[in-house]
Design a protein that fits this description.
Length: about 120
């Protein structure tokens, strides 16, 4: 059974940084695309950033220049470095892995941005 386990969430003040991690229990992790989504209360889940198996990245316009997605295939892990966090970016952040008919989600990690 494939599991995606997110970690690294927490409470930070506006302008601070967090690094999220998502560890995947799946063989051949490197062939899958991965991404981070977030969902705030009362809002739809939205794409934050993605990185393909080939390393191509894509970001939501609102996070370009502040967030960075990366992956370590040797560790079956995808990361999201978030700098300059804003209060409105507080949400549950979810990890997604997809490709070759697969589509897996983690249970999420809560990020709260508040002074």
């Amino acid at each position: 059974q494939v599991q995606l386990v997110e970690s690294g969430g927490g409470l930070v003040q506006p302008g601070e940084s967090l690094r999220l991690s998502c560890a995947a229990s799946i063989s051949m992790f490197s062939i899958y695309n991965t991404g981070w989504y977030r969902q705030a209360p009362g809002k739809q889940r939205e794409l934050v950033a993605s990185i393909t198996s080939g390393g191509r990245t894509n970001y939501a316009d609102s996070v370009k220049g502040r967030f960075s997605i990366s992956r370590d295939n040797a560790k079956n892990t995808v990361y999201l470095q978030m700098n300059g966090l804003k209060p409105e970016e507080g949400a549950v952040y979810y990890c997604n892995l997809w490709g070759f008919g697969a589509d897996f989600w983690g249970k999420g990690t809560l990020v709260t941005v508040s002074s």
